[in-house]
Amino acid sequence: MKDYKDTRKGISKHAIIADSAKIGRDCYVGDLAIVGDECMVGDNTIIDSRVVLRNTIVGKNCTIQSGSIIGEVGFAFERDNNSMSLEKFPHYGKVIIKDNVEIFANCTIARGSLTNTVIEEGTKIDALCHIAHNVHIGENTQVTAGVVVGGSTIIGNNCWLGLNSTIKHKIKIGNSVIVGSGSSLIHNVEDKDIVAGNPAKSIKNKISLSDDKLFLMGGQSKENQNKEHRFTLRKKDYSIRLKGLAYLNILIGAFLTTI
Question: Could you tell me the pTM of the whole model?
Fold first, then answer.
């Protein structure tokens, strides 16, 4: 399977680029995209049509698809003790997107409040996802369509978050974790666990798959059970691994119907 690379370059005459923004070499900025004050975009990055960047730094070789809004103020209010009125909590942080990140259409990623929101290198975020303020997502993690991540949550490297799963605010997910589709995650998750359900619980001991198939989803492998490693998707294994991904998702869905 040949790698697909978007080779578009140039800045649309209909894009809005702030004077203080910096755009790297060989980038593409599409129609009606907005790159706000002091935003930075690294080399060879695609900013597609109607994308809005504010308070954001984007690395090299990234793709942000149409309609995504990144760096707006997050949802945070404090209630006045006397009047019970809601007062907006200030946001001073940025969104930091590292190299080789792909963000699909119509996602929202909020800027940090007192710390930055960070998406580490190689992570892929599918369409219609929401990432709240102060979230930190590790390297080479897959966030599939419809996932909602609450504020100040930490997600490790090489994780797989299933379709329409919901991650509660202020929790920690370890490295190489698999979260089943439709799960509601409200507790911390240890490294290399598999969780599913509402509320999500560990089901790793109820799934009998080879380590190779677990590796497809969450970066788990027999040879590296006792040490961390970076997840590499080899081209020659691509079609086989997609089948393994679908198979494990079917098993998780079947399990959910029994609990």
Answer: 0.82
